[in-house]
Every structure is written in structure tokens, then in C-alpha cells.
Amino acid sequence: MSGQGSGGNVIAAICSFFIPGLGQLVQGRILAALAFFVIAMGSYALSATVILIFMWPVGAIAHIWSIISAAKFRSIDARIR
Length: 81
Prior knowledge:
Blueprint: H1 7-18, H2 22-26, H3 30-47, H4 56-72, H5 76-80
């Protein structure tokens, strides 16, 4: 990935829009991808139960955060230059 605003970051952000963490996985950030996926999807799954319905905002925040994180990612190579 070249840097912030590059075509690769746009594709990664679009991927994260559909599945939280997928954009990070496309960028090669496996731990971030796993964290975003588990937090967002776990919160969505818990909110599907009537007992823990208040968990959907946590999932929505994690989902939006994963999209923004994928869009604004700058690789280490881009930071050095």
C-alpha cells in the first residue's frame, strides 16, 4: 500500500464496510483484522439476543473504526519517507 488516500486503502475501506476487519486483512495487518472482527461481530451477535441488546453500539463503533482505520493506514515504508 502506498499511503493514506491510495487506491489500496480505498479498497481496504470498502472491504471493511462489508466485513469488519477484512480491510486490515487485505493490508496484511492480521492482529488488527482479528481484533476488529471479533469485537464487532461478537457485539452484533450478543445484541441479537434479547438480554444483551445494548451491545449493538459497541459493534457499530468497532465497525466504523475498522473502516476508518483501513482508509487512513500508512505503512512503515511510507512513514520513513
